[in-house]
């Protein structure tokens, strides 16, 4: 048969790859080739086509190899082939390997790679028990030729990856045999004999498993007594290859190092010492070949990130001694210096290393090596575990290497160094004596990282160019630089308690440089300000407060610097004064040591709270605008007073009689803006609520201070008495009645009476939101400001204030929610539908950002006509009001009994917040329709199936050129993509929140449960919102249909997060719905079909999750859902059987065999494996977790991952006014003026 089949196959392949063939001809050829793949003689035909002596083109040979691979992967265990035929196929594969290894000219790389995959698939199914001499065959092939050596390296690398890294279905089923066999051939026989002679000391259960593994290992060792081990063989080859010319040995050297890298994560540590592979890899870090250096650095990274028990004695002999005692550290340092010096035009003597790093931009491959080198150097730290109490011999030299990494302009490289110091200064031993000699240099290096944004602003600097190559957008660069600065500050805070006087003197020197400079640079001043803030906040009180000479010395030095800062004039630069105020307020915890300084400080802050330039005098009365610098300075001064009030309320409490009239006079004389008034009153609230005074006195003072705000709050009550009153007061009705007039006016002026009416509504809205915001700010400050002695007591908020504010607050929320009802929207003009749309601030919040500067919603509107401007203003105001109200309710909910004891609280909340419940079906239907339409036109809907989701690569790929734009904005396409994904996920989270079950605190409980046990033996599933779930799935509302349409949508879009949420929701509901026969059709048919094929009803086509390369990361969840459905419903219903029988290619015998195998398994993992194998055998699709598991391997992790774990700095958030009032007030300061 095979001889006759060759010409038609060649003709079909020629047609398929011919540029002149028509589409119909290609389709017919492809159909014929599919039929060839199903022939029983396909592997024999494949061998004829793929043989190196066949002289066929590469694409023909590749197709022939594909025939063999398909047979091994999908038909190996089927009755289609006898044992003799399987042996013949195996012999043919070995023959192909031999012919390719001896081919001249050398074999094509794509053929070698395909051949290695075939060999690995064969090994995973037969080695070692059914193929005992596989390693012997590979050793012969390895010594045959360079091509044979490369093929063997590809085979072992791929096999080790499938066994140890990827959750390959076949490898998982034979994990014990394959992993033991790999160890037996990789490690030398003498060493394995020594390991086998060690006693088993584990627990009884572990010992039984260990003895079983060792028994198999012993059998393999005895079968191969002369084996030297691949790791020793490869290590010796490194020496030979390194001595050869780069051109001839580079590819083989890199392939050998790549194979070693995969093995270093699991081979016994003793084999690393025996083979001396660490020393040889270190030597190759200085090799002439950049590719070899990169692979060597990756080997070090794998080894240094390996999880080694701290008590393992081999940690010292395998890692400690070679690195710190035998000169390897000097070799690594030389490799790092040579990396930059070889690119220096003047040679190594012209510049020092730090200057070289700052001035020389590394080429792409050299930079890739530098990042791997930095990561590996940082990961040496795990060698120095907490049990360590001795300093390595060359530790000082190692710290100098890390310091050179710290001074590198690259965000990623320097972040590795910062992370090392963060761990080092938490170490019980190394944080003290070993690090003390380097503290000054470390502090200087950390301070330089606080200036990173200034370096990034210089587009031609190395820092900026590295950042552009590492990150996808300007937003990512900004987040990464902020993360680096935060990490640096965290390290500074760790250093301060160790040497408070030394660190303070360092900070004092930095401040002195700012004070003495003729012209202060704002960026440097800001770096000094935030470092001073970190240092002063971290000084232990016992280092300052006391009568010891060292305590008095530090206290005197603190006050001396504070006086200098207060007397500094800021070089008459408002931007510098802002940083000066931040430095002053950092001393607030120590001002009580010298009360006289407190009065100077208050005078300073109040003077700047009303600061104006000569041209801005009486700006409120005259209506002129002030500059941004003036605005920022005034707000910094006002917000800083709040921190001072929180730090020393008892010292300021007696001064309230003097402070309150000052603030009242500033308000009455119109010297401060509305937001500044809010911040100054917040200062008073902080003093009152934090002081150790009788509660009655504090409550009386608080009510007096808030009396004016509460009266204004009460004045808005008529506006929420009814929904019509709310529409009228907010200006919505006025604009709706005159929409035609306003639209007709265009850019022209409106009639005077209408303009006055709309202007009054705008002013009313501004005052309304400003007042509500002020109430929220005061309540939040009252909640957080309390005396230290009563820190465990509830916040001192009078219950009368809560009872006064809450009803009107809820009435306002109810009115705003009512705007979303279909009845109201139907009464308004069509243009008012934008009320339901996302505003700019909401879009930025969804993207993880915020509005910068003082741009408010109204100012940010780009509308050119009066109507759009008015409507944008209303939409922005509604957004702010909703956020303010929600935040205020959140503060109330944390106040304790004062809030929860309010009469009829539950009824108030339900009537207010659940007014939208009746319109949920309409909302869901609209959401499904709109999202489906958007995804239909999304570029991802027709993107090639490359198996990698954009969001799983760390973000949507953007154009790097965008980073060079002055506005540093991302493209509209990226924003649209993120918004669509964000909206889809937000909609999925809504349903996920409704269906949230009570968490099971034992994650192993479900895995240990017997799914075949009677239903009554299973734990009862309850939801956190049981009544809401019952409401959703009742027959009285169409929400159940909305849910099924939602799941179908989520599981069909090209967004892995949304798809996973849809699968998870189905998994949550299966135990509940499976108990009710009325839902068996939904679970056994609809859910099962969704798991197998998520259909896009709107698009008119289907995409199978298990066929969809984009959704590989969700294969495991899909398999789990299929398993749950079949196990829990099949015993009571025929529906799952009929559904599975409808799968193309499924036969009755195959389905019966599947059910028999599934019933015989008792663990979740075994059942999942049965389902995987069934789907793979029927559909021909490899269902695996390769995509997901590879991300756990250190070499496959994103380099940007280091920035994802950075903790946000909340320690001093309230000293920056933008953060104090974010997210609500960051976008509408101007609206309140």
Overview of the structural elements:
It contains 62 helices and 2 strands. The chain is mainly alpha-helical and 1233 residues long. It has a two-stranded antiparallel sheet with strand order 1-2. It starts with a helix and ends in a 12-residue tail after the last helix.
Continuous helix count: 62
Helix fraction, binned, reads 55-70%
Beta-strand residue percentage: under 5%
Which overall shape is indicated by the principal axes computed on the Cα atoms? globular
Extended strand count: 2
Query: Could you give a short account of the major beta sheet?
Result: 2 strands, antiparallel
Extract low-pLDDT stretches: 201-211, 787-791, 846-861, 941-970, 999-1020, 1094-1105, 1183-1191, 1205-1233
Adjacency order of strands in the biggest sheet: 1-2
**Radius of gyration, Cα only, in angstroms?**
36 Å
Residue-averaged pLDDT: 78
Distance between the first and last residues' Cα: 89 Å
What structural class should be given to the helix and strand makeup? Answer: mainly alpha
Q: Report the oligomer.
A: single chain
Region (Disordered): 942-969
Biased composition (Basic and acidic residues): 950-961
Organism: Polyrhizophydium stewartii
Family: Belongs to the exportin family.
